[in-house]
Amino acid sequence: MILIDVVYMLFIFLTLYFTILFLVIFFDNKHAIMEGSFPKKYPHLTIIMPVWNKAKEVSEAISLIKKSVYPKDKLHILVIDDGSTDTSVSILKKIKGIKLIISKQNNGKANAVNTALKQVKTELVAVIDGDSYIEKNALAYMANMIQQDQTVGAVTSAITARRADSFLQKLQDIEYSIIVWVRKLLQSVESIYVTPGPLAMYRTAVVKEVGGFDPKNITEDIEIAWRIMYHGYKIRLSLQSRAKVDAHKKFYPWWRQRLRWSMGGIQTLLKYKHTLFSSKYGMLGKFVTPFFLLSVITSLSGFAIFVYSIFLIILRVLYWFIAPTMMAQNLGDAFLLPNVFMFFGVIIFILSLVYLYFGLNTMENRRHFNIRKLGFIEIICYLTFYVTIFPVILLVAMYRIARGDMSWC
């Protein structure tokens, strides 16, 4: 058995395992996916909004917070400008009903949030990006969910694309919707691994207990979630709490964002590698860190199979046109892999379509997403072209980390 056979079988096993696992979790919990209601009692809530060069977006973002159904006497908005070089500060100074902190230099989002966190006295605190657009019921649903269980340290929201006009934005719309669906399924096994920056709510005492956000991590929203779990707290996701973000229109900004996500995920995995497969750390050790590690292995093994398959295609062309008699015997066994790959590839593709259908259909039923706006081409391109870029991003991320280059992407 050659190495490529081992890599191939590993890829097939992991892909089938996780696809079937998530489908089983979905069918076992599909009636409980949509949950939540308004709280009977609203606790005081502080919104922390870190802003850096968001002059075009911040006014609308704050306006939507003010339109929230959350009682105005219980809602406090704390905006910290992190050294903006555009007109953000002058715009913020004109907005009434907020408390503004101005930093003369850019210290990064984690430092900005930690600075603001020192002034928070309320029971709950939510972090909202300066270019996030929340729906009016979002904060109320999240506050109710976090109050239902005292062991819940944070509640995250459903992040979706605001617009899906271009082809790339439509692919991102699919991606965001599937990500939300998967994270909601992971709640069933207490394994939500991120509290994304566009909108997440925390118990103030818990965030302060765990030491605030890590300024050394380029994806502080992933790291804080792992640290909350590390200290024994749970994380929930409210599908009814929606926040929209602007999907990238051009490839390069999209690439930079996904590269940062990959680098931050690996950085966090390395930080918490000691929890791997350890029941001492609850589901963080038993599922989250193994899931992340196996996802990396799956991605890299899939990419290896892809490259090897391309190599065999090229070799086959050379075989037919250059030396058919000389290479016939040597290539006899080599053609077995593409045939096996085709068989299992079809199975994986069909399961992926089923997986995608239930995910998108669930999101559509929850009014996050409109599958009718998508065509067959977008869905096929997502499953074939779009997802195959991620192993390349992962390799670049690993290379940069190996070089010690953790600069903001």
Task: Draw up the topology in text.
Layout: H1 3-29, E1 45-51, H2 58-66, E2 75-82, H3 88-94, E3 99-103, H4 109-117, E4 124-127, E5 133-134, H5 138-147, E6 152-161, H6 167-187, E7 200-203, H7 204-209, H8 220-230, E8 234-245, H9 251-271, H10 283-321, H11 324-331, H12 336-365, H13 376-403
Helix pairs in contact: 1-10, 1-12, 6-12, 6-13, 9-13, 10-11, 10-13
Describe what you observe in this structure.
55% of the residues lie in helices and 13% in strands. It folds into two domains: 3-29 and 283-399, no CATH class; 33-276, Spore Coat Polysaccharide Biosynthesis Protein SpsA, Chain A (Alpha-Beta Complex), CATH 3.90.550. The two termini are 41 Å apart. Helix 1 (3-29) crosses helix 10 (283-321), helix 1 (3-29) runs parallel beside helix 12 (336-365) and helix 9 (251-271) crosses helix 13 (376-403). It has 13 helices and eight strands. The protein is globular. By secondary structure, the protein is of the alpha/beta class. Strand 1 (45-51), helix 2 (58-66) and strand 2 form a beta-alpha-beta unit. It has an eight-stranded mixed sheet with strand order 3-2-1-4-7-6-8-5, sandwiched between helices.
How are the strands of the biggest sheet laid out side by side?
A: 3-2-1-4-7-6-8-5
What portion of the residues fall into strands of 2 or more residues? Answer: 5-15%
CATH topology of the largest domain: Spore Coat Polysaccharide Biosynthesis Protein SpsA, Chain A
Distance between the amino and carboxyl termini: 41 Å
From the spread of the alpha carbons, the general shape counts as: globular
Radius of gyration: 23 Å
Q: Look at the structure and give the mean pLDDT.
A: 91
Integer tally of domains: 2
Indicate the low-confidence ranges by residue numbers.
332-336
The fourth-level CATH homologous superfamily of the largest domain is: Spore Coat Polysaccharide Biosynthesis Protein SpsA, Chain A
CATH level-two architecture of the largest domain = Alpha-Beta Complex
Characterize the main sheet. 8 strands, mixed
Order of helices and strands: HEHEHEHEEHEHEHHEHHHHH
Q: What is the count of β-strands?
A: 8
Q: Which class of the largest domain in CATH terms?
A: Alpha Beta
The percent range for helix content is: 55-70%
Helical stretch tally: 13
Helix and strand content put the structural class at: alpha/beta
